[in-house]
Write a structure and sequence with these properties.
Elements lengths: L3 H12 L6 E9 L7 E8 L2 E5 L4 E5 L9 H9 L9 E5 L7 E9 L4 E7 L1
Parallel strand pairs: 1-7, 4-5
Antiparallel strand pairs: 1-2, 3-4, 5-6, 6-7
């Protein structure tokens, strides 16, 4: 499981907290022939990020709206939060079928200015 602190550290290292980057979900699927390998299956832009204090999670959502989550909107409020918030888990709601998906890694696409949160389906 990845936590908010992991996200903040990776954003600093990978993109220098560049506020213009848009967050996206990177979809990974198991290779049908070799279950130890993952295949990149595309990406989708994230539409919302909600801090769920009851579940102690930061939940990213894809809802098909025109809203976009940027590093500039996401990171500053997290930095001023309580220290225990840094240990909230990260998850993603992709659609009605794929809820509470665990984020397994991070990446970036400098050409498109996207910061990618990888999930395994």
């Amino acid at each position: 499981m990845k936590y908010i602190i992991d996200l903040i550290e990776d954003v600093r290292e990978q993109i220098g907290s560049d506020e213009a980057y848009i967050l996206a979900a990177g979809l990974l699927k198991e290779d049908a022939e070799d279950s130890t390998k993952l295949i990149y299956a595309g990406e989708a832009l994230l539409n919302a990020a909600v801090l769920d204090e009851e579940e102690r999670q930061l939940v990213f959502k894809i809802d098909g709206s025109d809203e976009r989550v940027t590093i500039g909107a996401l990171i500053p409020p997290l930095l001023i939060g309580e220290m225990d918030v840094m240990m909230y888990g990260l998850s993603m709601d992709v659609n009605a079928q794929y809820q509470d998906m665990e984020i397994v890694g991070f990446g970036k696409n400098d050409a498109k200015k996207r910061y990618i949160l990888f999930i395994k389906i």
